[in-house]
Amino acid sequence: MKAQFITLLLVSLSCVWLAHAADDCPTNQKALFCYFANWAIYRNDIGAFTTNDIDPSLCTHLIYAFSGLSEYGGIQSLDSYNDVTRAGFHNFTGLKAQNPCLKTLLAIGGWNEGSRKYSVMVSDQRYREAFIDSVIRLLVQYDFDGLDFDWEYPSERGGVAADKQNFGLLLKELKQTLSKWDLLLTIAVPMSTYILSAAYDTTAINAAVDYVLIMGYDYTPVNSQVTGWLSPQNEIAATVDAWIKTVDSSKIVLGVPAYGRSFTLDNSNQNGIGVAVAGPGEAGFYTGEPGFLSYPEIQSKVQSGLYTIVKDSTAQNYYAYRKSGLDWICFETEETYTYKANYVLSKNLGGAMVWSIDTDEFRHELNSTFAVTNTLRKVLFAN
Ligand SMILES: *[C@@H]1O[C@H](CO)[C@@H](O)[C@H](O)[C@H]1NC(C)=O
Ligand SMILES: *[C@@H]1O[C@H](CO)[C@@H](O)[C@H](O)[C@H]1NC(C)=O
């Protein structure tokens, strides 16, 4: 116990020292959050992506996704072999050695974690306290700079109505403790005004969090029966406008997808938006996941000449369908990422976010340009 405390003390002293080393970092610039999906290590062939493939100079904040909630209500690694045994956490926060202004956060939650356990944890002050303890221990042990809370979603998917208030309480208590350690608190929220009002106590959130990351993508789920937009600008604008009624616009961060949603059409003559699909699109060679394609996988398809490409300016999305065949993809291009980054500036938001850096172009054979992230950088850091 004593040795543990001394370790904590030493780690925290070195944090203070590092914070001094980072005194020269810009304080008024936009934030660029980049998620790293830890399962990207399992992708095929040269598509496999580890923390060592991250360029530490690209983003202001990196988020490691995901950790989860244990049966006992504490934060836990969901892949301890890679996160801990093979030092994924350590390698990730170690990227700060190459960029002292970089902040590294750990995300908890995600779609697969669901809601039920979280709903129970926030419901009782003693559970919340035990959870907060476990968070501090894990963050300090691995030198993370904060926690990103990705509960999907309070009051939904097995949650209860009281989640809204209880999650607000948890965030308030969490921030009180994180502040003592100089650690950040962010949350990820869906592109939905309906879930906003059902799930989030925005007044409590504005007081407690450093940033609210709006997941401005996944508008059409993989199991949809019809084609639809991936990240429609009109829905994004409605969600942003609803958030900035109570939350400072400088805390709002707009997330963009470095991936596309694909479907197999029912009928090759019906290839627009809202037409019937037979199922998710065929998995990409590298990503190996039906209905999901990385940015380079999309680029190689749409630049092949085999697809008809359609742009929609209202949605600021593209879709493409194979001239002979049933393949259909909704995606973004450098043009729409630029549009969205300019929207971030025009609304005076806090910055942008990319889900996720491991599906950007990262390797020589995949152009190694980090095209999505760099396109956002060009606009956000123009001055
Ligand atoms: C962490 O870095 C070491 C040294 O480069 C590497 O051997 C290891 O595979 C990395 N771990 C993960 C999970 O990527
Ligand atoms: C890589 O870049 C070249 C030239 O800009 C382009 O023609 C090619 O399609 C790109 N490949 C991928 C996989 O993005």
Automatic annotation (TrEMBL):
GO terms for molecular function: chitin binding; chitinase activity. InterPro entries: Chitinase_II/V-like_cat (IPR011583), Chitinase_insertion_sf (IPR029070), GH (IPR017853), Glyco_hydro18_cat (IPR001223), Glyco_hydro_18_chit_AS (IPR001579), Glycosyl_Hydrlase_18 (IPR050314). GO terms for biological process: carbohydrate metabolic process; chitin catabolic process. GO terms for cellular component: extracellular region. SMART domains: Glyco_18 (SM00636). Keywords: Disulfide bond, Glycosidase, Hydrolase, Signal. Pfam families: Glyco_hydro_18. Residues 1-21 form the signal peptide. Residues 30-383 form the GH18 domain. Belongs to the glycosyl hydrolase 18 family. This is Glycosyl hydrolases family 18.
